[in-house]
């Protein structure tokens, strides 16, 4: 009887903790949506052209950001009052990204678009920009609420993570052991995707999360991490991996270990290597991670430079594409490091 009481008591505590975590996640999401809806007074940034645009890339060794940058450059070509687009590459080094932002300020840019290596590390440098009347726009990834960030043009990582998790759990029949392959640790994208995954898990008590890993949106790193997990866990039934670049690395590791038939892959995104895999295996599908976020960010930046009030957060929505439909988007004559996009042919990377 005592053991039963202890068991029931511990179960109640566990349920209480999980409910508390879910409640905290819901509150964080509501707060994020409220912050994103705030109207920003941009009168302090209003100025006449011509304009010089700065792009502080946290990294360029990633095909998604290559396409995102091409969207920025294409949009710039449509504005006669934009005379130059200056691009820096921090190569995953937050200290260099700080220096890059300061360098763009010294070169007199009128607007800074950026994607971070570490949001906190570059906060001070971004504040230097806004203090000098240079608006800053977080481009892609997740929403950032900070006095140093004028606005975010973002992909809703909560919504994306929920769509990916629900589809995965449905395909798994609502039970089994999974691991998560997330982007760069500490970024809004990684934090929100993991929170969304755990929130959906509350609806699926028979899903067990073995491990949450960080593959840095890198195919080779995701593959290596998965190889280690395959050695550690004799049973893995599913993988939560919203990024196709990492998903294909994960799938390769399972295939080479002779265990691909044991696992269900979640939807990835529009990474061409992933779309090819979906077409061949008729599994997973895609939840879009649109590269046109770069174009939308520059459009918003031009509105700010004209002194128009804007929302602090502008979403670029994700959509679920079934395996059958996703396979149609695969471009078999293109390399894996390619992205389905609406860029004019002349502006696609060469």
Automatic annotation (TrEMBL):
<comment type="similarity">
    <text>Belongs to the bacterial solute-binding protein 2 family.</text>
</comment>
<feature type="signal peptide">
    <location>
        <begin position="1"/>
        <end position="24"/>
    </location>
</feature>
<dbReference type="GO" id="GO:0030246">
    <property type="term" value="F:carbohydrate binding"/>
</dbReference>
<feature type="domain" description="Periplasmic binding protein">
    <location>
        <begin position="53"/>
        <end position="308"/>
    </location>
</feature>
<dbReference type="InterPro" id="IPR028082">
    <property type="entry name" value="Peripla_BP_I"/>
</dbReference>
<keyword id="KW-0732">Signal</keyword>
<dbReference type="GO" id="GO:0030313">
    <property type="term" value="C:cell envelope"/>
</dbReference>
<protein>
    <submittedName>
        <fullName>Substrate-binding domain-containing protein</fullName>
    </submittedName>
</protein>
<dbReference type="Pfam" id="PF13407">
    <property type="entry name" value="Peripla_BP_4"/>
</dbReference>
<dbReference type="InterPro" id="IPR025997">
    <property type="entry name" value="SBP_2_dom"/>
</dbReference>
């Amino acid at each position: 009887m005592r053991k039963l009481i202890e068991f029931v008591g511990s179960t109640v505590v566990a349920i209480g903790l999980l409910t508390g975590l879910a409640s905290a996640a819901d509150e964080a999401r509501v707060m994020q949506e409220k912050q994103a809806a705030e109207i920003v007074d941009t009168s302090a940034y209003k100025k006449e052209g011509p304009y010089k645009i700065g792009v502080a890339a946290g990294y360029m060794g990633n095909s998604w950001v290559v396409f995102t940058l091409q969207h920025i450059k294409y949009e710039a070509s449509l504005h006669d009052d934009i005379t130059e687009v200056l691009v820096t590459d921090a190569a995953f080094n937050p200290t260099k990204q700080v220096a890059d932002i300061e360098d763009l300020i010294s070169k007199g840019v009128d607007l800074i678009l950026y994607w971070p290596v570490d949001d906190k590390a570059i906060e001070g440098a971004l504040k230097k920009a806004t203090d000098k009347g240079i608006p800053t726009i977080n481009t892609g990834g997740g929403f950032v609420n900070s006095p140093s960030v004028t606005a975010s043009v973002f992909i809703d990582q909560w919504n994306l993570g929920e769509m990916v998790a629900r589809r995965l759990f449905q395909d798994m029949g609502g039970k089994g052991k999974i691991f998560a392959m997330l982007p760069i640790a500490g970024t809004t994208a990684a934090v929100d995707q993991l929170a969304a995954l755990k929130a959906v898990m509350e609806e699926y008590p028979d899903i067990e999360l073995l491990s949450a890993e960080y593959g840095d949106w890198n195919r080779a790193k995701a593959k290596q991490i998965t190889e280690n997990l395959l050695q550690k866990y004799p049973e893995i039934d599913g993988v939560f991996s919203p990024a196709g670049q990492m998903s294909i690395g994960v799938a390769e590791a399972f295939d080479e270990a002779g265990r691909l038939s044991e696992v269900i892959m979640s939807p990835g995104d529009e990474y061409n290597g992933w779309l090819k895999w979906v077409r061949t295996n008729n599994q997973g599908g895609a939840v879009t991670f649109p590269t046109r976020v770069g174009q939308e960010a520059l459009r918003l930046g031009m509105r700010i430079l004209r002194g128009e009030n804007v929302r602090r957060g502008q979403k670029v929505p994700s959509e679920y594409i079934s395996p059958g439909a996703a396979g149609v988007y695969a471009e078999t004559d293109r390399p894996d490091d390619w992205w389905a996009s609406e860029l004019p042919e002349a502006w696609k990377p060469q």
